[in-house]
Amino acid sequence: GCRVDHPLIEAGFAALERAAEQLEAARPAVLGESIRHVWIKTNGARLLVTLIVAADADETDLAAWLDLVEMIGPPAGYALAVHEGQGNAVRGGPARPFRGVASLETALCGVPLHIEPLGFLQPNPAVAGRAYEALCALPDGTPLRGARALDLFAGAGVTTALLRRAFDTVRPVESYPESAAALGVPAEDAAEAVRAWVEAAEAPPDLIVANPPRAGFGPALCRALLALAAPRIHVMSCNPHSLARDLERLAPSYRLEAARAFDTLPQTPHVEVVAWLVRTEEAR
């Protein structure tokens, strides 16, 4: 019933549900203890389903269920991620392809992307693309150029690719192993990466861009950013409340030059906010 689901995602969940009902009628409770969560994503043409399963899940039963799903359609690929514990976390261990396509191909801002089973894919790519482009430019759209850029929470690598068109050196930082591997870097915490830059006594980057999770930067990363003292920090935030807290932590060393909201999740109260921060004269 999500109001922003793509029709293919709705059809995919409907196929899973109908097949589960058929299997339940024939073999009661065969899936109930095996499947914890289901992720579905689409590139607009194909579906990739990731099953978060218990450690003792019977893959023969899962395969039989997927046989039924494929008779109903339309998922094109499946992956399994094992949840070792007893909790209710929606993310298991590393996902492995199980059947069909192993990833989805798409593009954002002209950047080709291969989205893995647990990788992040924006639900409204057209508007998200405008937000990413704004993040890497000045508020009036003027392109930025320089020697060094630091891309925190780099995700699928769209901002990394955009920055590499304008900066001599771009360092992406990403904590999720799958996304970091796709970027060719080790998984790394953002605050630790910034502290390492400071401790190396290198010149600060000309620009820091960041797309943090809903919790925002947090105190540790804000302290590290203040120590690094880059002239500009551009932030893309999906939570205006955590963004406001981070702006307070970074003041008065940084002032808010401009902010703009992008409706990446239409028909919901959620927005992405791009905020442009400039280091103040007093802090220099």
What does this structure look like?
This protein is 32% helix and 28% strand. The protein is α/β, with parallel strands linked by helices and 284 residues long. The termini are far apart.
Give a summary of the structure in a few sentences.
The protein has 284 residues and is an alpha/beta fold. It contains eight helices and twelve strands.
- Tally of DSSP helical segments: 8
User: What composes the largest sheet?
Assistant: 6 strands, mixed
Give the overall shape, derived from the CA principal axes.
elongated
Which sequence of SSEs, written as H and E, runs from N to C?
HEEHEEEEHEHEHHEHEHEE
Q: What share of residues is helical?
A: 25-40%
Q: Total strand count, please?
A: 12
**Rounded average pLDDT:** 89
Give the end-to-end Cα distance, rounded to a whole number of Å: 51 Å
Low-confidence stretches: none
What share of the residues does DSSP label as strand, in percent?
A: 25-35%
- Roughly how many Å is the radius of gyration? 21 Å
Structural class: alpha/beta
Strand order of the largest sheet: 8-7-9-10-12-11
